[in-house]
Amino acid sequence: MTDSTARRLAKATFALYVILAVTYSAFVLATGPIPGRASDSKLGDLLFRLIPASFAIVAFLILSRQPRNRIGWILMAIGIGWEIGPSSIGEYALSKGMAWGEIAIALSAPTWAPPIGLMGTSLLLRFPTGRHLSPRWRVVEWIAAFAIAAATLGIMFAPIDLEEVGFPNLQNPLGIEALRPIEKVLPVFLMMIGATTAASAVGLVVRFRRSSGRERLQLKWLVAGGAAVVLIYIIAISLALPYGWSTPTTPLFAKVLQTISITSFVLIPIAIGFAILKHRLYDIDVIINRAVVFAIVVGFITAVYVGVVAGIGAAIGRGTRSGIVLPIVATAIVGLAFQPLITRARRVADRVVYGRRATPYEALAAVASPGSAAELSVRVARLAVESTAAREAVMWIRAGEELRPAAWWPEDGRAPSPVRSSGNSVLLPGERYVYPLLSGNEVLGAISVRLGPGEALPAGDEGLLTDLAAHAAVAMDRAQKSFDLPEGVVTLLMTDVEGSTALWEEDPSAMARALSEHDALVQEAVSANGGLLIKSRGEGDSTFSVFVDAPAAVTAAVAMQKSISQNRWTTPRPIRVRAAMHTGEAQVRDRDYYGGVPNRCARIRSIAHGEQTILSKSTRDAVGNSLPRGVSLLDLGGHRLKDLSAPEHVFQLQHSDLRSEFPPLRT
Description:
Elements: H1 3-30, H2 42-48, H3 50-65, H4 70-83, H5 87-95, H6 101-108, H7 113-126, H8 138-157, E1 161-162, E2 167-171, H9 182-210, H10 213-240, H11 252-263, H12 267-277, H13 284-316, H14 320-354, H15 360-367, H16 373-386, E3 392-399, E4 402-409, E5 419-420, E6 433-439, E7 442-450, H17 459-482, E8 489-497, H18 500-506, H19 508-528, E9 532-535, E10 542-547, H20 550-566, E11 577-585, E12 587-588, E13 593-594, H21 596-606, E14 613-616, H22 617-623, E15 631-639, E16 648-655
Parallel strand pairs: 11-14
Antiparallel strand pairs: 1-2, 3-4, 3-7, 4-5, 6-7, 8-10, 8-11, 9-10, 12-13, 14-16, 15-16
Helix pairs in contact: 1-3, 1-4, 1-5, 3-4, 3-12, 4-7, 5-6, 7-8, 7-9, 8-9, 9-10, 10-11, 10-12, 13-14, 15-17, 16-17, 18-19, 19-20
């Protein structure tokens, strides 16, 4: 299914939801009094419609931007599931004395099971990626699907009364007497739904513990929304215990809180919308941090007043003097303890939200760990956040007259653009905290960090970041000079992102993030097969890698194209990479390759299409009979290349997991 078809389907399903919701509301408003109904609250019915509305609206917002997003389709199914039951039609018919209304009520009785089941299992098991954490979690979803189907059919055809839907005096007109024993089995199916929901919650916890970066923040949004709903519900249930839930004797304040608790379920799809659409995604830590501080302060003040006024007052007796003195004493205690309490509460909140920060020694020692310049850049950006109060960090590397972002943390955070920087100056517009990487008088790069609104970097953190930049400069200088390029006959692998210029024009931020993912996928494929990524960013959005072993280069190309084609890109169109391989004896100078071999490889790359990998005849000969398993070569014949006199006989790399049909080569 294409994206355009998926978007049209999303619009159609949302239109179906709107029709169902309007129909339901119209019948609710037109329904008169119904004899024998346990409760009759049109306002409550209409307020409840906010829940499916929130699921459907958030689903439509997600699917209009990401039409293949499985979480969006699950949300849409939940929203429509709540509206699909004909209960409002049945109630309208009963209020008008129409006997068939009983059948409509019976049909709607079990329709709560599918949306509840989807919320409790599929949504939790698949959030936020749309995929299971591992294949074994599918079993939980299968068991839940069976239990939901069995409960739905059992409730619909069991010969029982319809008390659960507000009609205790109405027998199920669809009930089949032969199925009466199923009444004893129904609780088992309901318990299975509860058990699979609990298992799904465990799966969510496991996913959270294993997550990092953007996925962890997305999970925090869902957890925050769910926690708010649970807290509101617990308070509402606690206050309802003496009076009952929405009974004639329930006080007005309790009814209001009960209504709020029901409608609070809208927080779950709203939180999911923030997470999936990444709107203010990184604000969740600030929200949780301040909520923890607020909870600690409110809890302390409440404990002091209860302990002093109620506790001591009960012990010494309630006289006129104590009734005045004790509140004053409690206020004095709160006033004296307030500032130290705020300080400690913030420390606790930081520990809850950010975990244990790295100590200065741990941060500086980690910089000295061996690794490539690319690995060092990621490590430094991560340490700048994990060891200080910074929310975001960027590691910049000098490249000619530019400072380019080599890595940033969180990995899915903002993607800055290169900055012009002449001489040895380090001027980054809009950045308040910048720490240059100096090797003598030469600027190798810089570390920049950002904090939350209104926050300032503590002096201790500034000192640590200065030391971190100094250590990073030494490590970066060593990393850039440490590797020796293989000489003699080598196989070069060159890649380029097709249509990258247009993608940069359409969505620079998304493209910057995508290029970071692209670089990581290329690096992983090259390193895993014994290659060396010489340039992770050549002209445009190209890469340049070298291999001593030609079959290893072929294996790396297959792995790279497979991972790139299967990745879920957030750019307007998926990233498509064209690649070329050429083997020969290259000239090495100043840690780079020169001469005819890299030039011919670049020309071969220029005739390929996105997702296509082309090999020269020399690479085909070097591979010989050692093609990796499942790989074959398609002979594309000889082609003339720009500025090269001799034509090149080229071959297309073939694999069952890769695209194989392409237009003619661009020669």
